[in-house]
Amino acid sequence: MSTKNERWKPAVTVAAVIKQGGRYLLVEEETPEGLQLNNPAGHLDPGESPLEGVVREALEETARDFVPESLLGLYMARFVRGKLGEDVTYIRLAFSGQVGEVIAGRTLDHGIHRTLWMTVDEIRASATRHRSPLVLRCIEDHLAGKRLPLDAIHIDPSLYSPLIKG
Q1: Which residues of the chain have a pLDDT value below 50?
Q2: 115-157: per-residue pLDDT in tens?
Q3: What is the pLDDT of residue 165?
Q4: Does any domain span residue 165?
Q5: Three-class SS of residue 52?
Q6: The domain containing residue 54 runs over which residues?
Q7: Which of 43, 65, 105, 133 has the fewest CB atoms within 10 Å of its CB?
């Protein structure tokens, strides 16, 4: 629990929801809880827009170029890892889009064991292996047709050239 003078700092992540031929692309990744399933996803880096981040993360985790088409939404979840004393609230910006073929010679990011194309029924049946409850929630929202235009996210130029005050 934070003290009165501490600023709350949630972890900001981006995720790619990719569907082709009736299947969704997931990654199987190593976590402190063992191998778990996730959407291609990861932390947003400093000075990086959410679109840049999701394209980078999808490439690193799937070895495929990702082209975002829409924003699915903004999601929040809290995760407490008791034995490590970790208590993190995640803010996830999820995007839907398409990927190309695997890029020859490109390796998967450290900790990613493999990619899998899974049906919705397979994903629902594997919920106990999901890294986060947001994995299935993002896919369910995609199935429900939720889409926002990419321009719903505004990036001020100061992200790349910070304003200096004082």
Answers
A1: none
A2: 999 999 999 999 999 999 999 999 999 999 999 999 999 999 9
A3: 85
A4: no
A5: helix
A6: 11-101+109-139
A7: 105
Q: How far is CA 164 from the centre of its chain?
A: 31
Length of the chain: 166
Does residue 113 belong to any structural domain of this protein?
A: yes
Of 90, 89, 74, nearest in space to 141 by CA: 74
Task: Return the DSSP state at 16.
Answer: E
Number of domain units in the chain: 1
Question: How many other β-carbons are positioned within 10 Å of the β-carbon of residue 30?
Answer: 12
Asked if the structure places residue 39 within a domain, the reply is: yes
Name which of 134, 144, 103, 139 is nearest 36 in CA terms: 134
75: domain CATH number? 3.90.79.10
pLDDT of residue 131: 96
Strands 112-118 and 66-81: unpaired
Q: Which amino acid is at 55?
A: V
With respect to residue 161, please indicate whether it lies within any of the assigned structural domains.
no
Distance CA 42, CA 57 (A): 6
Neighbours of 56 (CB within 10 A): 16
- Give the end-to-end CA distance of the chain in Å, rounded to a whole number: 33
